[in-house]
Amino acid sequence: MRRRLRALVSTRRMGQFFSVGVLGAVVDTLALLALVEVLGVAPTPAKIGSAEASICLMFVLNEFWTFQQVGERDPWAVLRRFGKSNLVRWVGAGIALVVLHVLTQQFGVWYLLANVAGIGVGFVANYVFESLLTWKVSREEPISS
What we know:
The chain is mainly alpha-helical.
């Protein structure tokens, strides 16, 4: 248990994950803006497309930067992690989608602000689940803080 906790609280890994998440949030928000303003898609369904674009980008960055020292490098292992990461990330994206929908539909919050709020709510769940389930950091020696 202690080893798993140490792996999770690595300040270096958390900082990298946060940086990737910020970039992912920017991509998500810009894609959402384009889908709504350029293509005329309603915010809630547009969030599904913007989230998937962001999820794919964040997987690549996390795979080759944040968690580069964790896991096998063969193509099948990477593909399995991509599938697992996509499923895990959709937990956070689902949270963000619900927050976006509730804030825009029930409280009249501007959709881009509601999107940022939803992303923030899903971040912690994503970090814990990605670390433990996708890259399985508890099986590896943690990166020093």
